[in-house]
Amino acid sequence: MTNLRKFLSFASAISIVSQACYAQITTSIQPGNVLNIGYGFNASKPATGMQSFKTQWRFLTLDPSPSGTRFLATQFWLDPIDHSGGGDTLYIGINPPNQAINYAGQVHFSYFGTHGSTLYNQNCHAGADGGGGITCALDSVKALPGQTYRFEAKITKATATATTLEGNVEVFDASGNMIDSQQIGKFDVLRTNMELTYPGSWVEGTADPCSSLKRTMVEYSPFWRNGNIITADAVNLNSISGKCPFTYSVYTFPDLTQSVRIEYGN
Length: 266
Known about the structure:
Blueprint: H1 4-8, E1 23-25, E2 35-39, E3 52-61, E4 69-80, E5 88-94, E6 107-112, E7 116-119, E8 124-128, E9 131-138, E10 148-158, E11 163-172, E12 178-189, E13 194-205, E14 216-220, E15 224-225, E16 235-241, E17 246-252, E18 258-264
Antiparallel strand pairs: 1-17, 2-13, 2-16, 3-10, 3-14, 3-15, 4-5, 4-13, 5-6, 6-9, 7-12, 8-9, 10-11, 11-12, 14-18, 17-18
């Protein structure tokens, strides 16, 4: 998966015409993710020190078989609180092609590391993307246009020997009514004094050329930490990059937080 530590330190040169207007992006990067998206972390809202966070997006346009789009997720790290390094990668998100490609479930909460331990429900199994780690997945949550998906990752318990992690998903209809709420999975990692750090979102790509990408529009809401939407962080517009051309528009709410609609494909 894309190394978002490197990505979060990179800012594309993007010219913003105005808020609430589209700005055409014609630059592209080496083949890889369809989109990489960072959030507005700064000295007062650092990308570290989290015990939980929520991330949310809505499909405005989604083909039933969206060629070239594999997976939408927020990737983050389980890092030592003392910032000594050596953290483990996790991600949480949804597979939009409705099992058109080789994923075992629709929504995923996955851990990549060698310290996985107790699995607390049947949604989880050992292994992640063919390697070590843990994957938790649900088949019952489908990716559909008009629906909003809110994902939560959190540390629920810390003992002298382990950290317990939990991933959840809530689904809202086009009117904003919650229509589903489920735990994706829960498991232990045999590491102590840990925190969640450096989240960023992406749309995973395939080897398909840009010309074959189906038209897709996704609205990204602000990221917020520790369950508190007041401390929401908007998408950092200067961080948006991808392997194919895309456009975006920005909506600013009365509290000055923003959602960003990103469109790509044909």
